[in-house]
Amino acid sequence: MIHEREPRDQNQASEYTLTPEQLTTLWNAATNSRDELVLKLLFWGALRAGDVAALDVRDVELRGTDSAVLHIHDGKGRVSGDVELAGDIVGTLRRYTVSHFGRYDAGPLIASAEYGPRYTRKAISVRSVQDIVARTARRAGIANPNPQRTQLNSHIFRHTWARAALAAGVPIPVVQRQLRHRSSATTIDCYGTPSAAETQRWVAFMVKQGGLTPPAAIT
To answer: Against a cut of 0.90, is the pTM above it?
Structure first.
């Protein structure tokens, strides 16, 4: 089962993203390994807050030292898609699982509390994921670029990943698969239209190249 279309308000908000510098600042502002992992999963996995909260240790498949797969489930527990991970997030994920679980191979990946006896662990809530994002953003001094939002929200990491991937030339079907959209039409609806910032960069480039100069003025 693949996720349905993104909500309309998320489509409208998808043009607002974070810069690479802001992402690094957020990760560095995390006060513990759990919060750091939550923030990195939201971006590198392009996950929704609900995806992060629902992750089980058994959903993590580490492949060597620099790649991993997350098996994401829908609301009924069925696998709705796999998310590929590579690079720095894999090391963060490996360190977290080794230090927090040891020989345990089941249970929530992200706990509601950073530490505690294994038998008292409870999965983090969606609200707590959102709180981690907002709290870390305030500490880092990063505001939501969306003027309609008063604080940073988790979905902006998903928007940032998708637009960064497309800008880097990643094929739409690959982006669609990572986002777990039902069809490429959903991906195009959300991210196919350039953001205001992207449009401004292209307009400035065209002016610089003479592409917007009136024909009569060109000699």
So the answer is: no
